[in-house]
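Record pair follows.
FIRST:
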Amino acid sequence: MDVTFRQMTDVEANLIISSCSDYDYSCFDDDHNEITIVKLINQDTSITFSAHGADDEVIGFVVTHFNNGVLYMAPALLDSYTGQGYGYGLVNDTIDFIQEFYEDDFIEIRVMLRHDAEKAIDLFQRVGFNICDESQSWVEMSIEV
């Protein structure tokens, strides 16, 4: 999959937020509290990118931010693209993109997932992420870059 990224516009943010109403996007803040996608996208410390597939259609997004020298990312596909094999490509392309965008500002990427998000946990493990911390409600995974 060949995904391109660009900083999200308000129009794209509204498209993503409106499409999230029927789908459960689990997001977490720096203190491991579950928050809504709207709060995550609107955090002052985050940079949000829209992910575009063939024909430049928006297929998802990735929210990135730093915390204590670690880059956190939260990639997600729009509901209409889940279950079709796009996730693996999105995660790999996201890693490549953020390494280029942020250059050498970090050596580790982390993601936060709900503890019961078995398919997502498996996907990130296939990409090379390892569980580094967890609770009953969340799993934190990391990969060195």
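SECOND:
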Amino acid sequence: MSFPHKDDLVISIIMSNYNVYKLPVDDESVNILLEDAMTQMSVDTTKLTHMRTPFIIIKRKWVARNSVLNFLVLIKTYPRCCMLQQTFMVIKMNLFFFYNAIIGRLLLYKINAVINNRYLTMKFLIDKGVTTIKGSQIISRICISTCLKGKNTLYVQYL
């Protein structure tokens, strides 16, 4: 890792038996899942809970958020892991977005996570102590350069 940097903490987690990559950790946001990533995960759209909520702004564009979905989420560094049910706001973006989802403050507060962006780590409590998830500066920079080049690469893998 090179210093100084202003890179995002980008991790991967397991959502409903799928490895989902390119998830930034943002303690000022809500849990967001892109509709394209949901489609790659073969999630049944009848499981979506529709709701009327106001628009949000992402990348200076208005985005409608009209459905949410509950997922079983596994955050891990073997053998220590945290499994919980979490709600994600599903959004459809007509513009380029280089992440599959965003881990927001709702999940972070539920697991009592502490984020250190300088060292690209997230620590949280589990039954047997504290576990640490490390992000990759290389992956973070790949996400940013992909965005700047205008390429959209979602990556979801079935376990």
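COMMENT: The domain at 10-158 is CATH 2.40.70.10 (Cathepsin D, subunit A; domain 1).
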